[in-house]
Specification:
This protein is α+β, with helices and mostly antiparallel strands. It has 2 domains: 83 residues, Heterotetrameric sarcosine oxidase (Alpha-Beta Plaits), CATH 3.30.70.1520; 74 residues, Gyrase A, domain 2 (2-Layer Sandwich). Helices cover 23% and strands 35% of the residues. The chain has 4 helices and 11 strands; from the N terminus they run βββαβββαββαβββα. The strands form 2 sheets. A 6-stranded antiparallel β-sheet has the order 1-2-8-11-10-9. α1 packs antiparallel against α2. The mean pLDDT is 92.
Amino acid sequence: MLDFFTPVNESQSYNNFSMKEKTPVAKINLRGNLENKEFVSKVGKIIGMILPNKACNTSSKEKITSLWLGPNEWLLVSNNEIPKETNIYELEQVLFDNISKNNLGAITNVTDHFTIFKLSGSNIFEVLSKGCPFDFSSDDFGDNKVVQTILNHVDVTIHRRSENDVDLYVRRSFAGYLWDWLKDSAKLI
């Protein structure tokens, strides 16, 4: 059963930086081999797009975004909120039936595992740089790019949608801690 427990019950804004939790959003971890044509073909038909095959890239359709996490791993994220009353995410079941049951790859629902902080404003990267070794000014980190890194000693995935719009994925168990750190860091810009 999916648990839509939200670790953050507020939104905050400081000096051209605002943050809130995006919830509930379905998240599915997909693993498979891009050299397996059957895997690539089935996934492409099911999600209606080609999986990103290069580091830090994303692909997106109306209802779903695919984030590259590694050479054989992607995070499929619903672009729309799903009803809190349901424990069913149709895409998960279709992928499981066609990929996992046929030993082509692995499907894991990680909706409960991660929470997403929606960060917006012109000071996003100034705040994030206070606790992150990644160079956000790199030419390789443009719009619709994703990176896995450390933010104030916490593993995170950062999806840069645009210059002023970022989704920050963090394990639910660290969400409260990181939320408080972001608030404190944003107050000092």
